[in-house]
Structures are given as C-alpha cells and as structure tokens.
What does this fold into?
Amino acid sequence: MTHQAMTKAGRAYRWRWAALAVLMTAEAMNVLDATIVQVAAPVIHADLGGAASGIQWFGAAYTLPFAVFLVTGGRLGDVAGRRRVFTAGVAVFALASLCCALATTAGALITARAVQGAAAALVIPQTIGLIRTMFDGDEMARALGWNGPVVGLAAVCGPVLGAVLTHADILGSSWRAAFLVNLPLAAAVLICSRLLREDRAARPVRLDLPGTGLAALGTGLVVFPLIQGASPSRPLWSGAVIAAGLLVLVGFGFHQRRAARCGRSPLVEPSLFRRHGFAAALVTSALFFAVLNGLMLVVVLHAQLGLGRGVLTAGLSLLPWSGGLAVSSWAAGTHLVPRYGSRVMFAGLGTLLAGTLAALAVYHGARPTAYPWPLPGALAVGGIGLGLFTVPFFTTALSRVRPHETGSAAGLLNAVQQLGATLGIALLGSTFLQAAGHRPTPAAALGAVQDAFWVAAGLVVAASATTALMISPAGESGDG
It folds into this structure.
C-alpha cells in the first residue's frame, strides 16, 4: 500500500456506510411524500371538501416550494453547515407531516404541504455534499450510485403505499396515515444524524434572497391560475396573472446577470445560458416531468372520480407505470446507455409516446362505467419509456457544463424537474377537471381523461424537439 493510500485509509470515516443509510432514508422519505399523496388526493378532497382545484394543490403545494427553494437550500448548507441544515430540514418536515395528518380543512393541509416542500428543499441538496465529505475515491462513486436505486424504489412504492395505507384505514386514520408514516422515518433519521460529519463551503457564500423572492413570486403567479382554472368560476384575470409571472421571471433573469457582474453569488450561474444546449435541457426537463407527474394524477382522477373505484384500484393501476420505469432504468444504466449513449433518450421518448397513444386507444374503446383492463399494459410501456429517457438525460445535460458551473447546473436541473412536476399537475389536472365538470359522470370523465392524454402526447412530441436541440452541435455555442 502506498503512503498516499495509507493516508486516505487513515482518514476514512468509520461510520460512513451507516451515515449513508441515514441520508438515503431521508431521500426516500422526501420522494415518498412527493408521490404518496397522488392516489389519496381524491379521498382527501372528499373528506375535507373545498374547490376541485384542491386536488391539484395537495401535490403542487409540495413540489412548487421544493423547486423554488432547492438551490437556496443548497447555498444555506454551504453557509450554515450541511449537517445542521439537514437535521433542521428533517425536523421541520416531520412537524409539517404531523400538521398534514391533523388538518381539518383543505387550506390547512395545503399550507402544511407547502412547509413540507420547503423543508425538503433544505434536506435534499445536502446529501451529495455530505457524501463527498465522508467518502473518497471509488467508495464515493459507489456511495453516490446508491442514490438512483433508492429514489427509484421510493418513487415506485409511493403511489402503492399511499393506496394501501388509505385503503387499510388503520384506526380510522384513512388518508392521514399517508402523512403519519413520515414520523417514524424522520425520528430514525434525527436520532442517527449524529453519524453525519459536519461540512460547509471552504469559501464564504452569500444567499441571494432577492433572487429567491423573485423566483418564488414569478413561478407562483404562473402556476396559480393554471390550477385555479379547474374551478367552475375561472378567473377572467388568469391570463394577466400568468403574464405578470413571466415578467417577474424575466426580471429574475436580469437580476441574476447583474448579481454575477457585481461579484455576488447568484442562484443561477448566468454563463450556463451561453450554451443553447443547456437551456434546451431545462425546457426538456420541464416538459418530461410534467408528463410523468401529470399523467399519474389523471389516471387516479379517472379511476376514482369517473369510475367510482377505490383508492387501492387507483394505486395498483400505477404499479406497471412505476415498475416499467424501475426495470428500464436498470437496463438503460447497465447496458443501453454505455453502448448507445444519448440516443437512448429518443428511444425513451418514442416508447413513452407509444404508451401514451396505447392508453388513449384503451380509453377510446372502453365503456364509461367499466374499468379498462388493458390500461396497465399501456402504462407499463409508458413507464419503460420514462426509465429509458431519465438515465441518459441528466448525464447528457451536464456533459457540456464546465467544472465551476456543475453545482449550479445540477441544482437548477433538479429545481426545474420539480417545477415541471408542478406544471404537469396543474395543466393535465386542469384539463381533466374542466372537461369532466364539477360532478363528473362516467361518460364525461372518460372523455376528459382522453383530452388529458392528448395534451400529454403533445408535450412528449415537444420534448423530442427540445431534446434534439439539446444534443445538437449548436448547443455548444458560447463555450468559449
């Protein structure tokens, strides 16, 4: 063993693998919470009442602040210490989960969900930094490699676990059990958080609070009318509000450029946008994850509101979707991407489009009051497309990013992923609820789910076009 290897071995952190388990549990808890409510949302709405748009807000209230505060959460870890911010985020997440379980009105639940999303934005960005401070060399690559399988498994289990817990109605808890399940997980993470090493940025980093405020205001103004549009009394001013949100986001862009010129620490590294490929990657991410999350909600809405089926049927309907994603992610990562590279993304989008059109054909031929039994097969095809696309996408999106831009680029991609999820819930959910009506009949719901799937097919086609821009030679412009 060389002197350098002996030095590294001596520095190896004794509890690193146990600490990794703590970090992965927190990751899984946050991913579960993003998906577990999808199948329970109609049951929650039936219990708490309120406008139909509340069904979408139960999901969007989590993903929107998660997206907006994700980069700021990472910067806060640089400033205050990653372990400290991680444990604070987990504690707030647990308290917000308890508030969700105890909520007696839709407004109280939506507020608690927003706090959950903001807390998740404190937890998730710390994971990679903490892994890097506890692992070295090949072990660090192995540790980082656990992130994908854990997140994928949590995403697969979320809808099914939400359905099972809600259906089981343990001690009369119904949907509230979907939030109470977070408490033992969070308690275990907090108890074991002492295993984590503290870590912070070597150089002082300032928080861009004005930038965070502009990003939150702009995205909120865009998303709010899209979701409220599902209510019977659609606001006449919704177009003006969306336009105002877009103007605020343009102002956010100018603010980021000015902050960079003045030597401050912007939320987003402006040099990233000198390459058209990265901008196209952001648009692709938003479109793709809008389809992924929006269609999950639409399938659940049709099963429960249109067919009157229970939450367990809705959850099991999504199992082939999630299972296909898990299997194809493994195949893409181990066999396809090493051999075919970024071309696998187009195979994924083509397969996703085929699954979407197959589901449309199933719905078109179904009777309004009967469960469409070929649907799980079509959703399995779509799920395979999801996994084939996701694995090469992030590697390709970051391939032309320079080393000093990597942190900002990764944070921005994750934030746009969550924003795309929010937009998908808003757009596809509103398409379904507007077409189905306030009290949907089986026939109206069947037509509404087809409308939503057509919109999703259009988004997949648009994502194919932006993917082509993302990997084209023109995407390298401005590398300097």
